[in-house]
Task: inverse folding
């Protein structure tokens, strides 16, 4: 669809070749979508230009758009999506650009459709099972579809439904472990967050075998959560994965779209500053212990008003419990340490400096 892409023969011999639909990035490295606006067009474009897959997080793109007036959030999200995909493409005309759409969002279908219409290459979709994704993308058969799951059972449910209802299979599957990943975790209960049954060591080989035994197509498995350096990557490849998804490692990239204060919070963080909370969505999420989170954990946080009714299930909107997560994530993106929710993977404490995306790729793939 977009000419001049690097093909399989360019992939370095010591890394697996990752083919997702018609797309084969130079390196099997996916920068995971990070909302709100931690990964927008600048980071995604830089990752794609350096040979990885750059992913724009769809959530909250409208939040600082000049046309957002407080009441037109969903319409402006669509405009902001088009602009973000176009801007990333301009930065990486021959790169692979993806959008991450979370099923938990009220305007999930609109976000998926506007990403496709804007010419995105791949949609990654998690935070719930993307059961209807092929329906929303039916007018764009060239867009590759990649569910994000945390268990073989979840992958099996998606595959069966897609096959039965849409005669479509995933183009790849991301396994993201709640043990280490940042942001919302693929776990319904707090005890799953530390359950080794959800480790990549457990789920990746099991899923690879399941796909070999049950699928007529060659569906690559990608591992994510807690991957920081080349040794981590090689460990995941040894389990049978053909790609890695990394979030936290890219936050302190110069090109990351978050504010400098957001990045500084990672640089300042110690291991014990990273915690897991029950989010307003009703699933656990990993984040830095900010003053706001400490208050929330001790029952004393006051929320800002609901920003846009952006979630299909939100405890704050439904009964005033918890807080407006969209507003707290926007505050973090803008650098408000006191009031923000700074999502972070368990490796955030390892960030010690601002690096460039090129520098990160050189270290990971060199
Ligand atoms: C700040 C931040 C925001 C995130 N936001 C999203 C998101 O909007 N949607 C999503 O599916 N995953 C989200 N994630 C998860 C990442 O895409 C990625 O899969 C995960 O962080 C991988 O683990 P790692 O951070 O240990 O590399 C987020 C992660 C971080 C750190």
Result:
């Amino acid at each position: 669809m977009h000419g001049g892409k690097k093909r399989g023969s360019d992939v370095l011999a010591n890394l697996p070749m990752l083919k997702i639909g018609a797309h084969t990035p130079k390196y099997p490295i996916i920068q995971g979508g990070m909302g709100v606006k931690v990964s927008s067009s600048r980071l995604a474009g830089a990752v794609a230009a350096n040979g990885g897959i750059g992913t724009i997080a769809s959530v909250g793109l409208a939040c600082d758009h000049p046309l957002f007036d407080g009441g037109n959030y969903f319409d402006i999200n669509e405009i902001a999506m088009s602009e973000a995909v176009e801007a990333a493409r301009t930065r990486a005309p021959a790169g692979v650009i993806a959008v991450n759409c979370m099923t938990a969002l009220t305007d999930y279908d609109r976000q998926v459709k506007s990403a496709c219409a804007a010419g995105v290459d791949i949609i990654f979709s998690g935070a719930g099972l993307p059961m209807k994704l092929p329906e929303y993308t039916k007018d764009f058969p060239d867009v590759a579809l990649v569910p994000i799951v945390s268990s073989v059972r979840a992958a099996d449910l998606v595959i069966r439904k897609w096959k039965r209802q849409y005669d479509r299979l995933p183009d790849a599957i991301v396994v993201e472990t709640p043990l280490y990943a940042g942001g919302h975790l693929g776990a319904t209960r707090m005890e799953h967050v530390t359950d080794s049954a959800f480790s990549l060591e457990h789920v990746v080989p099991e899923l690879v075998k399941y796909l070999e035994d049950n699928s007529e197509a060659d569906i690559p498995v990608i591992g994510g959560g807690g991957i920081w350096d080349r040794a981590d990557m090689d460990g995941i490849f040894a389990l049978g994965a053909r790609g890695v998804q990394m979030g936290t490692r890219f936050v302190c990239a110069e090109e990351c779209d978050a504010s400098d204060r957001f990045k500084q919070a990672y640089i300042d963080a110690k291991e014990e500053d990273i915690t897991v909370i029950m989010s307003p969505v009703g699933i656990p999420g990993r984040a830095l212990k900010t003053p706001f989170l400490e208050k929330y954990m001790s029952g004393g946080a006051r929320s800002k008003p609901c920003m846009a009714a952006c979630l299909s299930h939100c405890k704050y909107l439904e009964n005033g419990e918890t807080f407006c997560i969209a507003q707290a994530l926007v505050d973090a993106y803008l650098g408000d340490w006191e009031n923000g929710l700074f999502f972070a993977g368990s490796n955030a404490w390892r960030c010690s400096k601002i690096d460039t995306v090129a520098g990160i790729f050189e270290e990971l793939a060199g």
In short: Residues 8-259+351-365 form a domain with the TIM Barrel fold (CATH 3.20.20.70). The chain is about 35% helix and 15% strand.
